Amino acid sequence: MCMVVSEGTFDKAMMPLIMGQTAAAMGTEVHVFYTFFGTKLVTKKANPKLPGMMRLFTGMFRNRMHKVGIPGYQEFVKQCQEMGVNFYACTTTMGLMGVKNEDLLPGVKILGAAAFLKLASESQTTLFIG
Amino acid sequence: MQKDATLDAKGLMCPMPIVQLAKKVKEMKSGQVLELLADDVGAKEDVPAWCSRTGNQLVGTETEGTLLKFYIRTK
């Protein structure tokens, strides 16, 4: 399964992790490609907030999710990686968004569009989250 | 139903019961029966879907109020 994430808000950040972790638990190979505003989500400083005025309620959302067993963002990414979910940052938008190689979370690979499209063409499911 | 292990996923919501289930089944021996307890209504559809996708066998389900019990024979 392949996913493209082009937004960097909390809701768009959590979706691919929930879907990705579930797919990995079902024995499916998972590739998540982060581009444009999504690129920030695979950096060490990533701490996504809800969009617009809703950002003020991010903490409340996080607490509610925590109560039903869903971990905080950074911990969730780590758990996904442990279950074999692959994360990629788009080369071009890294430059655009000011994200350097050393800013990326450990294990995140850098990929161009052609390489990702090859993965997507070999995959049965491709989702766009943005 | 006879079981070899129980996994209590009460209070957890999608996808956590499935994620915990996958981890637990990996630790068990082939042919053993796991009892999974969950109260997320989503589990009613998610557990059979997970079983059919992964080739583990769902051998029984029980409902007690809001509590769902699944019995899974590992492949």
How would you portray this structure in words?
- The complex is a heterodimer of chains A (130) and B (75).
- In chain A, strands 4-3-2-1-5 form a five-stranded parallel β-sheet, sandwiched between helices.
- Chain A has five helices and five strands; from the N terminus they run βαβααβαβαβ.
- Chain A has 130 residues and is an alpha/beta fold.
- Chain B is of the alpha+beta class and 75 residues long.
- Chain B has one domain (5-73): Translation Initiation Factor IF3, CATH 3.30.110.40.
- In chain B, a hairpin with a 2-residue loop joins strand 3 and strand 4 (67-73).
- The mean pLDDT of chain B is 96.
- Classes of the chains: A alpha/beta (130), B alpha+beta (75).
- The interface between A and B is medium-sized, with 14 and 16 residues.
Relevant terms:
heterodimer; A: 130 residues; alpha/beta; Hypothetical Protein Ychn, Chain: A; 5 helices; 5 strands; B: 75 residues; alpha+beta; Translation Initiation Factor IF3; 32% helix
In DSSP terms, counting alpha (H) and pi (I) runs of 4 or more, how many helices of chain B?
A: 2
Number of strands of chain A: 5
The CATH H-level homologous superfamily of chain A: DsrEFH-like
Largest sheet of chain B: 4 strands, mixed
Radius of gyration of chain A: 14 Å
The global form of chain A is: globular
CATH topology of chain B: Translation Initiation Factor IF3
Oligomer description = heterodimer
Major beta sheet, strand line-up of chain B: 1-2-4-3
Tally of structural domains of chain B: 1
And the CATH topology of chain A?
Hypothetical Protein Ychn, Chain: A
- Measured as a percent range, the helix fraction of chain A is 40-55%
Q: What's the overall average pLDDT of chain B, rounded? A: 96
CATH architecture descriptor name of chain A: 3-Layer(aba) Sandwich
Question: What percentage of the residues of chain B does DSSP assign to strands (E)?
Answer: 25-35%
The named CATH superfamily of chain B: TusA-like domain
